[in-house]
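Section handout 9: paired folding examples.
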Amino acid sequence: MFSSTALVALAAVVATASAQAGTLLKVTVGKGGNIYIPNDIKAEIGTNIEFSFFPQNHTVTESSFKDPCHPLENGFFSTFVPTSFAPSSTNASTFTITVKDKKPIWLYCGQGKHCQTGMVAAINAPASGNTFEAFSLLAKNATASTSPPVAAAVGGILKIAAAPSGSASGSAATGFTTKTVQTTVTAVITTVITTGASTYTSTYPSTYATVQIETVPLAANTGGSTSTPSSSSSAGAAAATLAAHGGMAGAILFAGLAML
């Protein structure tokens, strides 16, 4: 049971907001400290909630009421979003989720001790019992925070802003764009099969798949050129699956030879 004194103390850092279905509700992440603003949210089904990231490096991670500061299985996760500048109306790193039902949604920042120091939020928390204030108090006493073991955002749309850079006139560039980097996994297969007194050697190129690697930010539009990071390391990881495909190709070739 939570004491009235503790709940009153927590109420001082509660910022509420409500939204109607089909609307966009904006939440700041890390603005003015380790806090979400608002952090006690009421939203109808269909509401899009956009989390906008401030410095330094925060997450939006879904949790549960009973186990705050730890990820909910199959819950949403923004990944860690480092930034060195405050977002603007035209240039911001954001993570957007859609409210699909009226069940309470609990979330936290997985950076360091941010969760334990109050960087938590709730969507459609009840007015009594498992309230946002009660969740905050549980988070304060939670064990060390953990995050999902994934490198990509899940359960929402992550958009990464380009870092502002000075233009020729010295003004800051604004706006950003993203590009999906893809790679085609190819290999040259050499198959040697001996059957009876004959040896058959077959060498041929094969394309297995086009693999989406990541969505990366491009430089803000300043009139100059843009560049994208190399996807060679990701392609190498994807190519690790080629052995299995090569084995299948050999099996097909062997079956064909058996018919000669």
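Moving on to protein 2 of 2.
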Amino acid sequence: MAPIRESNAERRRGRDECRDKLSKHIRKKIQSCPYNPANSTRPEARHRNKALRGSPQSSCKRPYCWRALPSKKNFYSEIFAKNLSAHSIGTYRLLCREVGKTFEAVPSSAQCQTLDSITSLSSTEPSFSAVIDQLREENKRLSQQVRESTGRADAESERKRLTEEENRQLRSNQQWLEDQIRDHAGCGGLFQKYCREMILRT
């Protein structure tokens, strides 16, 4: 029975750590909710107790709701549909690791009824959508630079190829001329020898 008790204790520690980290994240994102776990009547304590509730019924009672990256929306929707105590220690660790990275708390509004609702952040930090738009623009700019660099590299490569081809042709022409000179020089020597022999015979 000891391993079971130890496992339960570890799970409780993981749950408490997860609640604490999520609550601090909510406090950071929703500045109007003071962090005071000891006071169960204050908003932050309610965040700790229902931090993973993502249903429309609960979102309208809280000053925040959860939002995830598009690729993680369905994954976190299943997690946030349950109470924190219903999850495993693996889920607690995942939430502690990913909060603020792949999901975040955003101020609740009339439109904040589902996980993927779009609302403005009260924090000065950029939202996921703003970061994604910024990354897309940066990717577009870098892609354009790559295309331009590739075009310049291709043009330079073609110029070098043409230059090398021209040099090979010039070397070939030079070799042909040198061969012609040697051939003519040889013919000239034979002609001079023939002339001398003819003179001696006469």
